[in-house]
Design a protein that fits this description.
By secondary structure, this protein is mainly β. The longest helix is centred in the first third of the chain and has 4 residues. An 11-stranded mixed sheet has the order 1-2-3-4-5-6-7-8-9-10-11, with no helix packed on it. The chain has a domain of 96 residues: Leucine-rich repeat, LRR (right-handed beta-alpha superhelix). It is 3% helix and 16% strand. It is elongated, with a radius of gyration of 19 Å.
């Protein structure tokens, strides 16, 4: 149903549970989810990006207990009406490009199995969760948010993290330690306000790709590179 201008009420008609595992409703002009969440308990992937959704009409989404991948990117959301930690099988979550504030973004009290989280362009000033609850995370994108650098203290608890995107976060310094991130492979720091190479990065292993402004830095020196969009 991708890229169709559908009215939510026209899609209603599902009255009994179905075995559907993947549903794409992206760019459909929807304002609410057009089915009862109770009937889609086998759903594993749901893509609703690029719809202008009313947050209050998403209440009940936490019933999708089998959900592993959820995309709510660019949905004009101001808040999220449920606790993501109730989606106990969720591994990938994209809620980027919504105007969410840190205080109302998450209600997370229990550890989650999330491996990939995208929060870019969400207008947050700090990560809206405790790092202790996301120890399975492998990819984290918080780019294009004006972050308070002190709010990143503790990020070293994400021991499985492989890719971290802090591009265009208005950062002037990096007050946290990366050396405990033993699995880190890619670190994106382009378009921040660093006046000099952050000294904390010198302790990183040489295999890590570090992109910062228009340069790639390594222990052996500075090499000019093209801007990288990974």
């Amino acid at each position: 149903m991708h890229s169709n201008e559908l009215e939510s009420d026209l899609l209603v008609g599902m009255e009994s549970p179905v075995l559907l595992e993947k549903l794409d409703l992206s760019s459909c002009g929807l304002e609410k989810f057009p089915f009862s969440f109770d009937l889609l308990t086998n759903l594993k992937e749901l893509d609703m990006r690029s719809n202008k959704l009313d947050s209050d009409l998403l209440v009940g989404m936490e019933k999708l207990k089998s959900l592993e991948k959820l995309n709510l990117r660019c949905c004009d959301l101001k808040k999220l009406p449920f606790c993501f930690d109730s989606l106990t099988n969720l591994k990938e979550l994209d809620i980027s490009s919504n105007k969410l504030d840190s205080e109302s973004l998450f209600c997370m009290e229990k550890p989650m199995l999330l491996e990939k989280l995208d929060l870019h362009s969400c207008d947050v000033k700090k990560p809206p969760f405790s790092f202790d609850l996301l120890t399975n995370l492998k990819e984290l994108n918080i780019s294009s948010n004006k972050l308070d650098p002190e709010s990143l203290v503790g990020i070293e608890k994400l021991a499985l993290l492989e890719k971290l995107n802090l591009r265009s976060c208005d950062l002037k310094q990096l007050p946290f330690r990366f050396k405990k991130l033993k699995n880190l492979r890619i670190l994106l720091l382009l378009e921040n306000d660093f006046e000099e190479y952050p000294s904390v990065l010198r302790s990183l292993p040489e295999h890590i790709i570090i992109d910062i402004r228009e340069f790639k830095f390594s222990k052996t020196g500075i090499t000019r590179v093209f801007r990288t969009y990974v």
